[in-house]
Amino acid sequence: MLYWIVRVVLLVPLFRWLFRLRAAGMEHIPQTGPAVIAGNHLSFCDQFLTATVTRRKLTYLCKKEYFTGRGIKGALTRGFFRGCGQIPVDRSGKGAGKAGVEAGLKVLRSGALLGIFPEGTRSHDGRMYKGKVGVAAMALGSGAPVIPCAVIGTFEAQPTGRRLPRLTPLTIRFGAPLDFSRYEGMEESREVLRAVTDEIMYAIMKLSEQEYIDTYATEAKAEANAQGTAAGHSGPQAGRRNQVTVGQQN
Q1: How far apart are CA 153 and CA 216, in angstroms?
Q2: Which terminal Cβ of the chain has fewer Cβ within 10 Å, N or C?
Q3: CA 41/CA 160 separation, integer angstroms
């Protein structure tokens, strides 16, 4: 109940009316059964934007720090994220990846929609980075289709470090479902997981028209911070319609 209250009272007015949200490809989201919605990650608001347009409840995995704050602010933050259908996951330590996969599989095996950002963190410069294989492990372990998703405009509206978003039009696109049943029973193969993840990232890239960089976002962000620059990019427009094949440098 709390999820639908937050969605209708807060998210829909915020994104559909204030930011003139446009959605395309809604017919690709199944009306019933499990599915993974895998998207690019440009801004803090991406998961809430996606939840605004899906007619079914959409559950995202998010860092547990959003649920551990103290005082009134911590309670409000915790209530907001729970109301938005978020599930806390401990992303620290060696078992973080496995814990995230298990949490995602639990959602999918219940027949629900699971949202995930394969890059693992927000892009610091608007470009798309290499996907982590957890999304492939969830898809193969559950047998659920993967719906590629692209948010457009959120980097310009609220890049990392900006507290209040700019009022700019936002667009979200969903692509045709990706079926990986041909890899059934092969979720333990690192090569298969990498191939599936790269296929997913390529589909997202085609929708978003971002430039693709074949390195992990966390590594690129650390390097940019060390150099005191964001690689000279002001936004995703700098990398539109790049023809790099995802994973070709693996």
Answers
A1: 22
A2: N
A3: 11
